[in-house]
Specification:
With about 450 residues, the chain is an alpha+beta fold. Among the domains are: about 5-110, no CATH class; about 255-450, no CATH class. It is about 50% helix and about 10% strand. The chain contains 17 helices and 13 strands. It has helices spanning about 5-10, 20-45, 55, 60-75, 75-85, 95-100, 110-125, 170-185, 195-210, 210-225, 265-285, 320-335, 335-345, 355-375, 385-400, 410-425, 435-440; strands at about 130-135, 140, 145-150, 155-165, 230, 245-250, 255, 285-290, 295-300, 305-310, 315, 380, 430. The strands form four sheets. Strands 1, 2, 3, 4 and 6 form a five-stranded antiparallel β-sheet that branches. A four-stranded mixed β-sheet has the order 5-10-9-7, with helices on one face. A hairpin with a 5-residue loop joins strand 9 (about 295-300) and strand 10. Helix 4 packs across helix 6. The two termini are about 20 Å apart. The model is unreliable at about 1-10, about 15-20, about 30-60, about 85-90 and about 445-455 (pLDDT under 50).
C-alpha cells in the first residue's frame, strides 16, 4: 500500500450514508473506468491493434480504481468482495477475484466528526461523561464497521464495534450494483447463475448488520465454550450495545497468521483446536460461525489461547444437513464412492441430470479429497491435492460444465470448511484429520445447543 493511501486511511474518510451518495460513488467509478477504456481503446487502435473488452477493462489502473472505490464505500459492496475473495471455490475468474481480494482488509476509517455523530445518535450527546478514555483511532476497520478501544469510568476495558452509517439501509442496492459490475465485466463464466448467490449474500448481510443479533450469538458461544480452556470469547456489555454498536471485553491479542513463525507444536495445537471446534459446530452445536476470515481468530497475549471474534455470520445448521455431512464423510473415509455419489446428489453438489462425463470428473475430484483425508496425517501445506482439483475444475469449465446452485446453508458451510483448509495451509500443519473425524462420525445425535438466538473484528 502506498504512503499516500496510508495517509488517507489515517485521516479517515467519511462513509457515504445515503443511497444517492453511494450510487454517485458507483456512478463516478463506472464513468472513470469507461473513460479509461475509451482512451485505452483509442491508443490501441492508433497502434494498429485490435482492442478487446477484457483487455480494456482489466488494466491495473481500472482494477485499482474499482477496488479503491469499493473500499471507500465499505458496506455490502466491500463485504461481497471479501466473501468472494476467499479461495474456496470462487465462481469468479481471476481478474475479478483479484479486484475483490484487495478488499479483505483495506477499509478506510471514519473521520472523528462522523464517528462522534454516530455515537451521539446511539448513546446521547453526553456519553463521554461515562468514559475515562475513548480512542478515536480504531484498532480495526473492515466492511461493516470499525472497532475502538475504550475504558469506562467504572474500570471496564472495552472493545467497541461501531457500524458505519447507512450500511444496513444500502445492502440491497449495493448488492445489485456489485452484481451489475460483475455482469458488466463480461468475465462471468457462461451459464453461471449469479442471482441466487447475490440473494444469499444480501440475506447474510442483513443479519450481520443486526448487532443485537450478533451480541446474542456471542453470548451463546460463550456458553457453549465455557468449559473449553483453549478459547476466549469476549463478554458483551448490553448497557453499551445497540442495534449498531457492540460493546465487549477488550482482549489483548495478536493476528493468528503470526503463528506461521511459531514452533510446530503450537501451530499444530491451535489448528487442531480450530478444526475440532468446526466439527463441534457442525455435529454437536448445530450452530456455525461461517465467516472464515483469518482476522476473526487471534492469539491471546501471554496465554496463547485462541480468541474468537465476530459472530455476525453465525448460522443455524439443520439436523438434516448435519446428518448429511456425517453420512458423506463416513462413506468417503470408508471408500464407498457409490454412496458418496448418492449423497452428493442429495446435497446438491451434483444434479441428477449432470452429464455422465462431468459426473465422473466431479466424483474423481471428491475421491482426490478423501484419498488425502484417509492418510495417517493430512498435510495442509502440500499443494498436490489443490493442484489436482484445480486441473480437474479447469477441465470441467472448458467442457462447459455449469456448477449447481448450492443451498445457502451448504454454501456458507462449505465456505467455512474451505477457510479452515486455507488457515491450515498458512500455518503449515499436518493433522490426523481422519482420526479427529472418527468420534463425530460414530455418533448418531450429538448434544443439542441451547435454543435461543444468540472483538476487535468488525
Amino acid at each position: 500500500m502506498s504512503d499516500a493511501r496510508d495517509s488517507r486511511r489515517e485521516k479517515g474518510l467519511a462513509v457515504p450514508a445515503t443511497r444517492f451518495g453511494r450510487l454517485s460513488r458507483l456512478g463516478a467509478m463506472t464513468a472513470g473506468v469507461a473513460g479509461n477504456m475509451a482512451l485505452g481503446g483509442a491508443a490501441q487502435l492508433g497502434r494498429g491493434q485490435r482492442p478487446t473488452w477484457r483487455g480494456l477493462l482489466m488494466t491495473p489502473g481500472n482494477i485499482g480504481r474499482i477496488a479503491d472505490q469499493l473500499a471507500k464505500m465499505r458496506g455490502a459492496a466491500m463485504k461481497i468482495g471479501q466473501m468472494v475473495s476467499m479461495d474456496t471455490g470462487d465462481i469468479l475468474p481471476p481478474e475479478l477475484s483479484d479486484i475483490m481480494s484487495r478488499l479483505r482488509d483495506d477499509a478506510h476509517f471514519m473521520p472523528p466528526a462522523q464517528l462522534r455523530k454516530v455515537l451521539d445518535t446511539a448513546w446521547g450527546a453526553r456519553w463521554m461523561r461515562s468514559f475515562h478514555r475513548f480512542d478515536v483511532r480504531p484498532i480495526a476497520a473492515a466492511s461493516i464497521g470499525q472497532v475502538h478501544r475504550a475504558q469506562l469510568k467504572d474500570g471496564r476495558d472495552l472493545a467497541i464495534k461501531v457500524q458505519y452509517p447507512g450500511v444496513a439501509r444500502s445492502i440491497d442496492s449495493d448488492v445489485a450494483n456489485v452484481g451489475s459490475l460483475i455482469r458488466m465485466s463480461g468475465l462471468l463464466p457462461r451459464g453461471i447463475k449469479l442471482d441466487p448467490y447475490l440473494a444469499e449474500a444480501a440475506a447474510q448481510l442483513h443479519e450481520e448488520t443486526d448487532y443485537l443479533r450478533e451480541a446474542r450469538y456471542l453470548e451463546r458461544f460463550r456458553t457453549l465454550l465455557s468449559g473449553e480452556g483453549g478459547f476466549v470469547v469476549p463478554e458483551s456489555h448490553p448497557d453499551w450495545s445497540t442495534g449498531t454498536i457492540i460493546a465487549m471485553d477488550y482482549v489483548a491479542s495478536r493476528p493468528i497468521e503470526e503463528l506461521a513463525e511459531a514452533g510446530l507444536e503450537q501451530r499444530h495445537r491451535v489448528m487442531a483446536q480450530l478444526l475440532d471446534l468446526t466439527l463441534k459446530e457442525l455435529f454437536d452445536f448445530r450452530l456455525m460461525q461461517t465467516d472464515p476470515n483469518f482476522a476473526n481468530y487471534r492469539i491471546e497475549a501471554g496465554k496463547g489461547r485462541v480468541v474468537l471474534l465476530d459472530f455476525g455470520a453465525v448460522r443455524e445448521i439443520s439436523d438434516a444437513t448435519s446428518e448429511l455431512y456425517r453420512a458423506l464423510l463416513r462413506a468417503g473415509l470408508a471408500g464407498d464412492m457409490r454412496q458418496v455419489e448418492d449423497i452428493s446428489i442429495s446435497a446438491g453438489f451434483i444434479y441428477e441430470n449432470t452429464a455422465s462425463d462431468h459426473r465422473a470428473r466431479i466424483m474423481r475430484m471428491i475421491a482426490i479429497v478423501f484419498d488425502a483425508l484417509r492418510a495417517d496425517s493430512f498435510d495442509f501445506a502440500d499443494p498436490t491435492m489443490s493442484r489436482s482439483l484445480q486441473r480437474e475444475g479447469e477441465a470441467l469449465a472448458r467442457d462447459g460444465f455449469v456448477p449447481p446452485v448450492l443451498p445457502g446453508e451448504i454454501l456458507f458451510l462449505q465456505r467455512k470448511l474451505g477457510g479452515m483448509f486455507l488457515l491450515g495451509a498458512r500455518l503449515g500443519v499436518r493433522l490426523p484429520v481422519a482420526a479427529m473425524l472418527a468420534p463425530y462420525l460414530d455418533a448418531r445425535d450429538g448434544p443439542s445447543a441451547p435454543t435461543a438466538e444468540g472483538n476487535s473484528r468488525p
